[in-house]
Design goal:
It contains 6 helices and 2 strands; from the N terminus they run ααααββαα. It is mainly alpha-helical. The chain has a domain of 83 residues: Winged helix-like DNA-binding domain superfamily/Winged helix DNA-binding domain (Arc Repressor Mutant, subunit A, Orthogonal Bundle). Strands 1-2 form a two-stranded antiparallel sheet. α2 packs across α5. The chain starts with 15 loop residues before the first helix and ends with a helix.
Length: 155
Amino acid sequence: MQVRLTIFTVGTAIEPEELADRIGEMMAALRREMRSGRQIGDLAPRHEAALAWLRRKGRLTTAQLARFEQITPQSMGVVVAELVEKGWAVKSKDPNDGRRELLALTDAGAATVAQTDAERRSDLVNLLATRLSDDDRALVARGLEVLMRIETEQK
């Protein structure tokens, strides 16, 4: 996992833009490391991403999924056809616009997403256990507590 390393000391000012960039880089690097060289069952990364969007957002059109994944609707159409063929998703007519089809997770799709989540969590646990010392894990936990203030102060 290659991430730009800059040592920050307590009391040293860091601009919010730089901190946001660093957090984004670290999240992307962690995702890549957790997925590196390992596909779960016959769930390709393109399937995993689409199923995750359906779980998060509920019923979506192919065009919406394509926008979320930043690919063409035609490319997402291929992914959608594969999801339906594997029984992970089902299409239905949009009750508000009969010209559109909505895609939704099936029970099998939801179970696949849950299994994937468990596998990815296991990967993260392994990375934390094998690559960080006890002190480093405590420091990460403290950093997460600070970041959680953003969420709790919004309420």
